[in-house]
Amino acid sequence: MRGRQAEAARNDRLVLDAARQVFATQGFDAPVSAVAKRAGVGMGSLYRRYGSKSELLQRLCLLAMEQAIEAAEAAVAAEDAWDGLAGYVRACVAFGAGALAPLAGTIETTPAMWRASRRGRELLEAVVARARRERGLRPDVTTLDVAWLVELFSRRPAGGEGAAEDAVQARLLAIALDGLRTPRPEPLPGAPPSPSHYEGRWRYRGPEARRERVP
Q: Are the CB atoms for 99 and 107 separated by under 8 Å?
């Protein structure tokens, strides 16, 4: 890409990176103007690309799922099954794959989002099954356990940026990953999460859903 096309692509990525940071740390009621300010672009430029806040959020969700698919493909191709799974989790946490989970039910989901979600889960199932088969992963850990772990570590509190926060997160993530490994684990409490529970959160409940959400 050259000229204006390349500039538009750069601006789009700046907007998406800024939006992910703003919404992940300030909440989804943060104004779009905060996204434009962080990205260093004008409001006109932002709205020419995304006609509404909902459209921007839909694109953010799809981008996160596409990145998770890439991470899962790399995990499938990894020489060691455990290294592949741990690498997948760390990669997804690094780019905030689950940071948008609080949006569940508050925006309309698109067919492309559902397709990407299911493709990502199929790949993750293969990664988890291989790690379990090669005895790197404890046998009672499920694909959705891993998905929810990614969500939990993807969320940052307001002001949760900087080297100190990154170091704390890396330490806690290492502890969590060790808890997934096989040597003499304690039984996990409760039943594993179900696909209907995991996907059901994303069924659009209308404009009132965001007002009802507990921060």
A: no
CA 119 to centroid of chain Cα atoms: 14
Please give the model's pTM, rounded to 2 decimal places: 0.79
**pLDDT greater than 90 at residue 74:** yes
Q: Indicate whether 74 and 141 sit together in one domain.
A: yes
Name the token pair of 16: 């998406």
Helices (H) and strands (E) in the chain, counts: 10, 0
Tokens 């290492």 locate to 174
Give the H or E element holding residue 12.
helix 3-26
Domain that holds residue 41: 1-51
The verdict on 35 and 64 lying in the same domain is no
- State the DSSP string of 61-104: HHHHHHHHHHHHHHHHH-SSHHHHHHHHHHHHHHTTTTTTGGGT
75: pLDDT strictly greater than 90: yes
**Dihedral of the CA atoms 105, 110, 113, 118 (nearest 10)?**
90
DSSP state of 106: T
Whether residue 97 contacts residue 150, with contact meaning beta carbons closer than 8 Å, is answered with yes
In order of 65, 92, 133, the CA distances from 196 in angstroms are 18, 22, 25
